[in-house]
Amino acid sequence: MMRTILLVIATVAGLVAADAHAQSVEREAGPLPRFFPHRTTYLDLDADQRSHFQLAYLVSSQSGIPPEEIRMWFNQNGEVVSFDIDPSGRITRLPELDELAAEPTVWINQERGGMSLNLQFEATLPGGPEYAAGDLQLALGQANHAIRQAAGVAALFAPNFKTLVFEFDGPAPSAIAIHDDGSTTALTAQENRVMLRPRDRGMRDLVRIEMGRMPTRVLLDS
Asked: 139 with 125: CB under 8 angstroms?
């Protein structure tokens, strides 16, 4: 079950290593579901309940091994299935239900002891860099509903997503909120991020937002 976690960095026992000599290592690191917590719960949701959000998984080495040098893979029907990892550490090829159910062993090219796994909630928004208020609200609503549904009696302690964090490659561009009377409000920018809380009082008449360029991803936060 999806527990009450958000942006939780969990050190996964049996994950990686950490020196320059570790790159030649190939070792068993554990069953596939262990590396993708709550992925099965997410995929079990109806498609229309997860159309605007997803779970993202990022790996990092505590000893500074570049993410693109970390390899993770498993064997399925005699074939090697590798997980692509981008320079930010984000795993870009995620397992499907049948792969998770089979629980194959994951192999990695790092020594034992030192890699962390970071689970994050992301919005998946149509269009861009202009976004309709309805899509922004739906991303937050779907993620909150999924957490409450999975948490059961622990729902009172679950995080409540209220903020969308737009991340950019380089400094954040100009970004504005457009209200139903045609007026505009500049959105808060910090370094490479733009933040929006569409349920705040000043945004209740929000129609859409416009940004100077496309974000690389959109995080959901409390």
From this structure: yes
